[in-house]
Amino acid sequence: MARTTLGRTGIEVSDYCLGTMTFGTNTSEEDSHRQLDMSLDFGIDFLDTAEMYPVNPVKKETIGETEAVIGRWIAKTGRRNDYVIATKCSGENSSFVREGQIVDAAVLREACEGSLKRLKTGVIDLYQLHWPNRGSYHFRQIWEYDPSGQDRVSTVQNIEDVMGALKDLVDEGKIRAFGLSNESTWGTMQWLAAGEKTGGPRIAAMQNEYSALCRMPYDGDMAELGHNEDVTLLAFSPLATGFVTGKYLDGALPKGSRHEIAGGSPRDAPRLDGAVRAFMDVATKYGIDPVHLAMAFCLHRPFPCIPIFGATTTAQLEHITAGQDLQLSDEVLADLNQAYRDHPMPF
Fold first, then answer.
1. DSSP per-residue letters across 50-87
2. Domains in the chain with CATH codes
3. Residue from 53, 127, 218, 248 carrying the catalytic annotation
4. The whole model's pTM is what?
């Protein structure tokens, strides 16, 4: 497994990140622990979680259980230092965690202390804000996105206050680095400015949805920011929640699949099948497994990018990691670009 660093932190991680959002629901604790063992065997030493997990579905009574599952693995194995652990603080956009309560300095500290306790660790390597307080255009909200109700003064003041709390947590040795999620270019620049002003931690990573089927809005302004400011994209849903495999074409819901368990997918849209078929045509043309092609696509972007993959089963984990050494030619990348031009923003 190739390796890279998170932003300018010097923290070295594997090129793949293990997503854990199904640990504790769709993936049993036994299988979750097996995946944590197997991922290390495959050279993956970077994992991502969040206080609101598990998902599919999110339930009030299971909030925090994914972190607890990981914490029990750490307690059982004593292998805390074998992983770089990323987790996230929820805001009012995250169901059931603290509804109607924005992230401020007090909420941030409370959330961090809770994650530390559940993870059974003294330090979080990468601590992220799951959502901006002011709202977001991610998760298909860009179609009606309206920033006109935002107040710049209060937004910037809140960012500086939270950055001060982050600085304290770094000084106390409770977090090593800081990242964002579901953010915009403007928002990220405010956080970068606040870090310089307060002496708080610099933004190391941005966790946004990104895949060969979902390239906007990251391609463009965020890509330029990522390159020039050394902000690493942690691309969630690099397999487009499984759509790249073609198993959901024509409305199919295979038994036991993520979409079957959830009763469908909000990403499903009339134009999606055409985009999936165009992607699969490229995979077929070059004899590449579509899962491996989707993961490699993220690693071949002209900005720092690490795909976060989730595997409900250990068989899926083995399948995904089998393509870790795949290199894509200029011809393959050109065909993927053309496929996206022909089928832009399919969901």
1. -TT---SS--GGGTTHHHHHHHHHHHHH--GGGSEEEE
2. 3-342 (3.20.20.100)
3. 53
4. 0.96
